[in-house]
Amino acid sequence: xxxxxxxxxxxxxxxxxxxxxxxxxxxxxxxxxxxxxxxxxxxxxxxxxxxxxxxxxxxxxxxxxxxxxxxxxxxxxxxxxx
Length: 82
Prior knowledge:
Blueprint: H1 6-18, E1 21-22, H2 23-30, H3 39-45, E2 49-52, E3 60-63, H4 65-73
Antiparallel strand pairs: 1-3, 2-3
Helix pairs in contact: 1-3, 1-4
């Protein structure tokens, strides 16, 4: 992981923290084929977001407690939906 894309990881985690998102929507917005910019992969590897089945066939991506702590440590306040 490099410091250059840390702000992008924060943006991804903050976006997911507002409300769980369908996996397909997250992949459309955040997946990249650039090996130098693995934002989604780093967020998952660090346990900041997680996929979970919701029965609809498209898993939901939600923020984890570690992700909320990560946002808090970086001064990002998130108002979660629901």
